[in-house]
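Researcher: Please generate the 3D structure of the following complex. Treat every line as part of one assembly.
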Amino acid sequence: MSKRLRRLELLAAQLKQECLCTVKELAAQHGVSERTIARDLDLMREQGLPIDADRGRGGGVRLDRNWGVGRLNLAYHEAVDLLISIEVAERMNSPLFLANLGTVKRQLIASFSPEKRHRIERLKSRILIGVTASTQVQSGFSSPPETVVRHVHQGFIDQQRLAIRYRREDGAVSKREIEPHYLLLKYPVWYVIAMDGLRDAPRTFRCDRILESEMTDTSFRLLPKEAFDSVLAGNELLV
Amino acid sequence: MSKRLRRLELLAAQLKQECLCTVKELAAQHGVSERTIARDLDLMREQGLPIDADRGRGGGVRLDRNWGVGRLNLAYHEAVDLLISIEVAERMNSPLFLANLGTVKRQLIASFSPEKRHRIERLKSRILIGVTASTQVQSGFSSPPETVVRHVHQGFIDQQRLAIRYRREDGAVSKREIEPHYLLLKYPVWYVIAMDGLRDAPRTFRCDRILESEMTDTSFRLLPKEAFDSVLAGNELLV
DNA sequence: ACAAATATGCCATTTTATGTCACATATTAG
DNA sequence: CTAATATGTGACATAAAATGGCATATTTGT
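Model: Done. Output below.
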């Protein structure tokens, strides 16, 4: 086999692309008999693909127009980004294009392994949504650097001490050691809430002003939420 | 067959859930010989699944940890919502969790049929992103009604005349006939830009104030963009 | 009425999948 | 170093599944 598997994949792709195919055409294209194509279609239907067939002259076979736009294969970090993006968008309550994303979210969550689900829950419990900011994202610094994103996916929050280069509002760049505890979105600006290693006090850093970040293996101190009350006040947790 | 297909699906799901399985366990669970599982794994590898194997004592088989967190099967309207949501989020430039969504977008677009791709392009060409609004979404009216969303997916823009019940700021509810041409997001509020059938002039309606909408089969007049210049000014198209 | 399309059943034949056994190779515990 | 567990691979007989061909029913447009 494996021949049949391949054919089934091809058939599905083909039916998605083209609107209406006759069994005869399909048989010729795949070099098998019409009977075989009929059986393949049966199998695909059995597996849940909504294949419509128009009988009679001028008829043919097609996939239900509103069905599965293919399958998305997501890597872990893609899935996390997608899930968090949807949840943030939901929280930000601009609902027109969110109506049908509930099922997407459910599918995403269901497909995580328990271990990953836990990791994501912890990440979410460290994300805060605040009021919309009056400031704009700095032009020229519109994206936080790659490294920040990578650190987020690697369990950035509550685990790793980071060495960063930070650009103050007046333009001066300084080096700092921080222990990040929370991410805060005051749309459109993301902040990192962290213990400043030098001053040993909670501080808030704009993600778009972090020029570089690097993990350091200095130990991380777990701190209770209360330690951050002063900077967290007035913001809501994502979960 | 179909037995093997099912087994392959189960195997993939299982390897995603559990970190490490021995071939012996898998064989026992599926009631086949170890040799068969080995062959199944070969086939899965051939199909592109990144299956790692640790040989030797304590070894086993697992899926690459960062690989496909399941497959998403999306219906058309889910895929559209997802795509538009991502693009809107990108345009709104709050980038922390958008870093890895480029590939998701590409997969989505690639999986649309040409016809659907065209439909989506047209929808996108009718979406405008404006400046962030100072107002909030009306509480109690936070979601536009189901019907508005449905109409969007059915080719709402530029095709259908709608009868709506609209709630003015002072609370008064009136009936109107509109021909919708554009959707405008002034975050967090969505607007419909339409020809008001009674006054025959362009007008802007807040989506969260549309209480009900219904298609009417009265003819729709295609109008050039210039007709809406007065209300479109200062807003940018999504595409 | 006729032609073109799907849908379904049956059976002989061909192809594929499976189990079994043997052996190679890699890793870890002791 | 050795024994114990793992995966990986090849060969071969056999069970199972896929295939093709044919007959037939059914739907639909001309």
